[in-house]
Write a structure and sequence with these properties.
By secondary structure, the protein is α/β, with parallel strands linked by helices. Helices cover about 40% and strands about 15% of the residues. It is built from twelve helices and nine strands. Strand 3, helix 4 and strand 4 form a beta-alpha-beta unit. The longest helix is centred in the C-terminal third of the chain and has 19 residues. About 50% of the residues are buried. It comes from Paenibacillus xanthanilyticus. This is Dipeptidase. InterPro entries: Dipep_AS, Metal_Hydrolase, Pept_M19.
């Protein structure tokens, strides 16, 4: 079978680098990172999204967000094999050169404190996707585990409008269900769920119900299947075959062209059996090939995400 330059729409390497600056993305012998340059090469990666995630104890201002971006430039983009993806043209250049694209996203906008000038600064620094909340509530919306299960605030709606205007992809993965529908009503651009699975198969607050999946499909959005074991099976003892069941369910809802990958590597404490880092992606690929033709599997692993980015990333000035 043909090797596909895979796309992963979510990892938390920057969070680990922020917590321990002795770690190295390029040369990390300790095994404390799931995603490293060597493992991305081993996976035949074409693009990796690096999320900026700030823990709740550090998320009250912009400083740790900016420090995470500095680490992205100093430790990830410093590797000659990596290329920062900010525009459609960058995407094509990375593909033609064989370098690995590095897309920068924000997971939780707490530190912006509702100031759209901060969002515009992040755009200028290269952020191209953003989730408004993590699991908790903030100034813009309620997250997936907020008990009151509210929706977007007035400032949250302003955030959606400004992301649409700038060309920042909006990520619904951590939103409450009410916030999801508020954002779906407010956006003029398709939404992504960078790392979420199927609620009908595993009833976790972070998973999407069938109506949400259908809504993302209807707007030509994207859903990143994630390797978080507790989002795959309730007891967390997940196998690669359990992963395939979530893909099958989304396809049954019409999502064959809307599925991508969003591993959440380095944001998880346990792993799917046999899928512990990018170098083991071949096991998932082999399992998918047993059910789907090569063109469809290529869509899941790469093409669906690339098609979306080609359409929705901003053009170079």
């Amino acid at each position: 079978m043909k090797q596909v330059r895979s796309v992963d729409f979510h990892c938390d390497v920057l969070w680990k680098l922020l917590e321990d600056e002795t770690l190295s993305f390029e040369h990390e012998p300790s095994g404390r990172l799931d995603v490293t340059l060597s493992r991305l090469r081993e996976a035949g990666a074409g693009l990796q999204t690096f999320a900026i995630f700030i823990s709740s104890t550090k998320s009250t201002n912009m400083a740790p967000i900016l420090k995470s971006i500095d680490l992205f430039y100093e430790k990830v983009l410093a590797c000659p094999d990596m290329m920062h993806i900010q525009t459609k043209e960058d995407l094509e250049n990375a593909e033609q050169s064989g370098r690995i694209g590095a897309l920068l996203s924000l997971e939780g906008a707490d530190g912006l404190q509702g100031d759209m000038a901060m969002l515009r600064i992040l755009y200028r620094l290269g952020v191209r996707a953003c989730g408004l909340t993590w699991n908790n509530a903030n100034w813009g919306a309620d997250g997936a585990t907020e008990p009151r299960a509210g929706g977007l605030t007035r400032k949250g709606l302003e955030f959606v409008q400004e992301c649409n205007r700038l060309g920042i992809l909006l990520d619904v993965s951590h939103l409450s269900e009410k916030s999801f529908w508020d954002m779906a009503d407010a956006t003029t651009q398709p939404l992504i769920a960078s790392h979420s699975n199927v609620k009908a198969l595993c009833d976790h607050p972070r998973n999407l119900n069938d109506d949400q999946i259908r809504a993302l499909i209807a707007m030509d959005g994207r859903i990143g299947f994630t390797y978080v074991p507790q989002f795959i099976v309730r007891d967390g003892n997940a196998s690669v075959s359990d992963c395939v069941k979530h893909i099958e369910h989304m396809c049954e809802l019409g999502g064959e062209s809307h599925i991508m990958l969003g591993s959440d590597f380095d944001g998880i404490d346990s792993h799917v059996n046999g899928l512990a880092h990018p170098g083991e992606l071949y096991r998932f690929r082999e399992a998918l090939h047993k059910l789907y033709k090569e063109e469809t599997v290529s869509g899941f692993l790469r093409d669906n995400a690339f098609t979306f980015l080609r359409k929705h990333l901003p053009a170079a000035n």
